[in-house]
Write a structure and sequence with these properties.
221 residues; alpha+beta; six-stranded mixed β-sheet; five-stranded mixed β-sheet; globular; zinc; Glyoxylase, beta-lactamase superfamily II; MBL_Glyoxalase_II; RibonucZ/Hydroxyglut_hydro; Metallo-B-lactamas
């Protein structure tokens, strides 16, 4: 995932995926094998599993990044942030209503009670966040959730896309704040123009490329 023009910054970037909770949500650890710095994206729960992975990788977490406010992506954020003494960054503030109702989300899905997280920084379109020495552009991609954001690095040819787009599918729009037409617009106007060679890591399931989904995803026809 490195770019020859930026080897000094990006050659060490690695991604370790830790599936968490009954939803098998992809909690992603973006880390640098040279500096041992890391960020955690979407710690949805099973914090003990995430901490074990961090220990095994022998990395220091700089902060936590959140794509959107559904419980399977934020359920462990408060606990992890407190344990590691790091800040929580994201999502867009349009997801505040979802985050404020995280306890209700837990009850709705029959999950154990979780602690509500208060993001230290909300994100907007065009912001840049750092992850293990790499800079990721923030794309506001509503539809699955009003404040959903995607993290994109051009040189790595990588997007961490949360629940906007999946291999062979798209995000649900039947949850509070969801809207199908808005989601399709986010995919076609924000993600697909990034290029067919961009790999995206979704919030659930395997990674894919934007080109493959543009040609084969039945929801994008």
């Amino acid at each position: 995932m490195s770019d020859a023009s930026n080897k000094a910054d990006l050659t060490g970037i690695q991604i370790t995926v830790v599936p968490v909770t009954a939803f098998q949500q992809n909690c992603s650890i973006v880390w640098n094998k040279n500096t041992r710095k890391a960020v955690v994206v979407d710690p949805g729960g099973d914090v003990d599993h995430i901490l074990a992975a961090l220990k095994e990788l022998d990395v220091t977490v700089e902060h936590i990044l959140i794509t959107h406010g559904h419980i399977d992506h934020i359920g462990g954020a408060a606990e992890l942030a407190e344990t590691l003494n790091v800040k929580v960054i994201g999502p867009h503030e349009d997801d505040r209503p979802l985050i404020d109702r995280v306890e209700d989300q837990a009850k709705q899905f029959g999950l154990d009670a979780v602690k509500k997280v208060e993001p230290d920084q909300w994100l907007v379109e065009g912001d840049v966040v750092t992850a293990a020495g790499a800079e990721f552009q923030v794309l506001h991609c509503p539809g699955h959730a009003p404040g959903h954001v995607v993290f994109y690095n051009k040189d790595l040819k990588l997007a961490i896309s949360g629940d906007v787009l999946f291999a062979g599918s798209i995000g649900r729009t039947d949850l509070p704040g969801g809207d199908h037409d808005t989601l399709i617009a986010s995919i076609k106007e924000k993600l697909l123009p990034l290029g067919d060679d961009i790999t995206f890591l979704p919030g659930h399931g395997p990674a894919s490329s934007l080109g493959h989904e543009r040609l084969n995803n039945p929801y994008l026809k």
